[in-house]
Structure to design on (678 residues):
């Protein structure tokens, strides 16, 4: 029951402090807007094309046309518009007059493509797409011949596509980065949990009461976790619904990972406050640690840890790096399993820090 | 019945002995004053009683139970008023008292009622919803006390509860201590203000260099040093005074004239004041003022420890 007393008291204190709202909510949201807007160009590696218009004409090859219609359906979802030309000459003329980006003729000899020098990029895209289509069509023709030869139908063709993962835009990137950052900022909320009792002189009063040190520790950790989790959730949903930031289809896994990072940061902050001798040393170590971890963790700008070198090595040591990368893999790689080792790692470090705290609490007299 | 019994209490910090074999007992209903200069060991002793420091050697029994083996029982029955104001500025007065009282197992309506009573007791009944950051030093001190008494402890330890406050708040706190005592509470009281201890404590222990060097009622303590007394007599004209004749009065050990004041050093047990006055009347010397120094705790402390309480 005393755990609940401590928890309630801590929550009251936290939520009555306006600086808490500024630091854990307003600051990351403002930073997300500023960085997301200012660095938006850094996240765009390609060019944007308008809708590609293609005319086509089937010249008697019904089998080819049947397959081609399947392509029309899929390509229509990717920003292509296909229209059938009445005659071949009209299609060629439309391309010459730049009314269509390309004209395709399906005949018994194969596929003819008419493009224009005015639209070289669009023409190249269409050419590439039709080449892939032709290869696939030829492969199906080969399977039909084999099936006829053996009189037993087989599925000789297996499709495997290498689709590039969806890439985040700047707001997507900074939504995740800020969520990771404020999760790790929990360290700031925790390093003063026990030192604060000394500063306020309430530590002696607490220890004079019939309450165990472990109850105080658990109550404080639980309250700080709740507060930070609350602000994190607000930030996530704010970025999701106000800025349309991408959080993927496995939001629960992402939140679980971030919660594990909060727990890690809280336990680390408390452990630092016991290991460091003075309040000043505690504050200095905590601020340095968080800021360096944020910088290396790609909170302020993206950092490529795969390039090798000393900087990449140090960057890979940041808890924010491994959390950031795992979350992006969950969101853009559709791979929730990528989060589990990181969650486990965060919890293990949190547990280690917790035991350090318990060791110091047991050893010293008072809080 | 003794509320507290301490036997051979010792506390060592590495090689430094802060409390060295202290023994005393406190009967139910007493206000027990603990006097000692800074670093004498009184706070260390108090912290061991309150369960804030581990005991190196010795025994503390509260209500007959060893506090080492019955830590929770001891803490439930002790109210601790620390020397420093120990309250949360971001909680209201009511919430502060409620939080600390809640740690003693009080719940619900009983808790709220006792919190209200404690605040009313220290004169903060109308400040329940106020935040301590708006309180004066005296009000914070009173809230500091309220946080320690709401759970109705049998023994209240007050470590210099009147440091740095205005006379009005001091008076209020001293009256509160007496009222608490009247309700049946036993109190351990430490202070740097000797007159406070003298005014409210029924029994006093003087602690120096980690040891109790004297213990008893204030009257008993005074007898420890009262073998001599000083009398100062200011006269209108000191020309005709025969100091040698004054020395013949029974009990007088020495006489000294400084300006128009005669300082007489005499045996304390001899009541010779009438003889001295009669002597001056015979000599037709007009007495302007007369002062006899009665021994007080300050002089007792000075004599026993060789230093002032505030050293």
């Amino acid at each position: 029951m005393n755990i609940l007393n401590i928890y309630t008291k801590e929550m009251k204190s936290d939520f009555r402090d306006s600086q808490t709202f500024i630091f854990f909510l307003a600051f990351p949201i403002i930073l997300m807007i500023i960085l997301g807007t200012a660095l938006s160009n850094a996240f765009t590696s390609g060019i944007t094309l308008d809708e590609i218009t293609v005319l086509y004409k089937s010249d008697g090859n019904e089998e080819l046309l049947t397959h081609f219609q399947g392509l029309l359906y899929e390509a229509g979802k990717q920003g292509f518009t296909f229209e059938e030309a009445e005659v071949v000459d009209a299609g060629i003329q439309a391309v010459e007059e730049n009314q269509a980006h390309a004209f395709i003729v399906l005949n018994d000899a194969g596929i003819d493509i008419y493009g224009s020098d005015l639209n070289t990029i669009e023409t190249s895209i269409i050419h590439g797409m039709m080449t892939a289509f032709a290869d696939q069509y030829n492969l199906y023709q080969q399977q039909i011949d084999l099936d006829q030869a053996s009189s037993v139908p087989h599925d000789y063709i297996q499709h495997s596509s290498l689709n590039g993962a969806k890439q985040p835009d700047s707001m997507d990137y900074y939504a995740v980065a800020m969520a990771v950052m404020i999760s790790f900022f929990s360290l700031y909320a925790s390093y003063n949990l026990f030192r604060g009792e000394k500063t306020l002189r309430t530590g002696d009063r607490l220890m004079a009461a019939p309450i165990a040190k472990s109850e105080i520790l658990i109550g404080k950790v639980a309250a700080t976790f709740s507060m930070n989790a609350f602000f994190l959730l607000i930030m996530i949903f704010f970025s999701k619904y106000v800025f349309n930031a991408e959080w993927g289809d496995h939001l629960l896994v992402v939140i679980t990972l971030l919660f594990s990072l909060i727990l890690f940061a809280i336990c680390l902050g408390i452990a630092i406050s016991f290991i460091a001798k003075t309040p000043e040393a505690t504050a200095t170590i905590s601020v340095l640690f968080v800021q360096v971890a944020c910088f290396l963790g790609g909170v302020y700008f993206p950092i490529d840890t795969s390039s090798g070198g000393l900087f990449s090595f140090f960057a890979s040591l940041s808890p924010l790096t491994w959390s950031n990368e795992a979350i992006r893999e969950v969101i853009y790689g559709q791979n929730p399993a990528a989060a589990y080792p990181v969650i486990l790692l965060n919890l293990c470090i949190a547990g280690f820090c917790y035991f350090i705290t318990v060791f110091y609490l047991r050893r010293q007299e008072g809080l | 019945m003794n509320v507290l019994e301490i036997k051979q209490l010792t506390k060592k910090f590495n090689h430094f002995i802060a409390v060295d074999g202290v023994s005393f007992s406190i009967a139910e209903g007493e206000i027990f004053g603990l006097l000692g200069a800074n670093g004498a060991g009184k706070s260390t002793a108090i912290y061991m009683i309150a369960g804030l420091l581990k005991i190196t050697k010795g025994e503390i029994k509260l209500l007959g139970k060893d506090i080492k083996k019955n830590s929770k029982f001891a803490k439930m029955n002790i109210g601790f008023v620390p020397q420093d104001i120990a309250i949360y500025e971001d909680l209201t007065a009511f919430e502060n008292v409620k939080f600390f009282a809640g740690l003693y197992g009080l719940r619900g309506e009983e808790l709220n009622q006792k919190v209200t009573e404690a605040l009313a007791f220290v004169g903060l009944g109308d400040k329940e919803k106020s935040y301590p950051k708006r309180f004066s030093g005296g009000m914070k001190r009173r809230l500091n006390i309220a946080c320690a008494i709401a759970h109705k402890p049998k023994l209240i330890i007050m470590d210099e509860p009147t440091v740095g406050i205005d006379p009005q708040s001091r008076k209020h706190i001293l009256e509160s201590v007496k009222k608490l005592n009247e309700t049946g509470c036993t109190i351990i009281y430490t202070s740097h203000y000797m007159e406070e201890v003298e005014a409210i404590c029924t029994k006093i222990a003087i602690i120096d260099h980690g040891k109790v060097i004297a213990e008893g009622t204030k009257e008993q303590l005074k007898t420890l040093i009262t073998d001599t007394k000083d009398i100062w007599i200011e006269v209108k004209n000191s020309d005709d005074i025969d100091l040698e004749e004054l020395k013949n009065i029974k009990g007088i050990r020495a006489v000294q004239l400084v300006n128009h004041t005669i300082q007489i050093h005499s045996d304390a047990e001899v009541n010779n004041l009438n003889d001295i006055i009669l002597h001056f009347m015979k000599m037709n010397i007009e007495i302007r003022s007369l002062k006899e120094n009665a021994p007080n705790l300050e002089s007792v402390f000075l004599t026993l420890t060789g230093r002032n309480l505030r050293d």
